[in-house]
């Protein structure tokens, strides 16, 4: 759980800038060419994900500054984000393999805990070298090839199945991501790790949207206006404790997610590995859908995005919440949040 928590925080810190601004400035490039600098900056920030994974995983274990820095270096070595360039140096691209970054960071932490204080005064001289060669070497040479094959295969399986059966897989992915967004698992991390793309990404993202609107409607009377908006503009994860303690209150959300996912699959709502899992927060999902190949900012596409990302999930949330409340399975106080 400590490793997963570190990865989750790193994913948000490194990928949110690109998710919020990358798609927006891509759309603005024809009228604002200087926005290319913003795109490059946020893209560079996303490539820093592996080092952040290493550092934040190490912080979960309360390691020293030297140990933390060494874990960050090892995570980069195992991520594959920087590959040797035949012309010399390294070629930095993308975010690397999130799963292997976390795995390498875990190996580094285990090695550091094993070493402890045994190096004494030689710690500053030897520790980073040992961790880089052992943990980083295992991540680079041993685990990276296997994890890459696994993640690419899994991503191709999900993306391919969604292309063949967009409605069925739309339902499955939307329900799955709706459930994951109120669990300790990072939806953004999962989507990025297996390279979810196209309709698979778009429908998964709609599951997060359904969760946001469903929890907003369910707890409106108990939480008030501002707190309820947090589920949509922030993250539905704020309801994790309530949902895990009383799972039945999530049934209206799952019903909404299934229908919205089916509609998203039928209409071809798409996205990127980074946009999947963010929901409507920062307009990440809608912007990714509009900027996706084959779409565009036409009036028809704008209307479609508004309906699928806002009107449909909101309307269905009201309907299913009223239905389940009528039979006594959910009440506003079940969704009560207390931040004191």
From TrEMBL:
One Pfam family from the record: PTS_EIIC_2
Transmembrane segments: 38-59, 66-83, 95-115, 122-147, 167-196, 203-223, 243-264, 271-290, 302-324
Domain Phosphotransferase system EIIC: 1-336
Membrane topology qualifier: Multi-pass membrane protein
Subcellular location: Cell membrane
Predominant place of localization: membrane
Keywords assigned by UniProt, alphabetized: Cell membrane, Membrane, Sugar transport, Transmembrane, Transmembrane helix, Transport
Name of the protein in question: PTS transporter subunit IIC
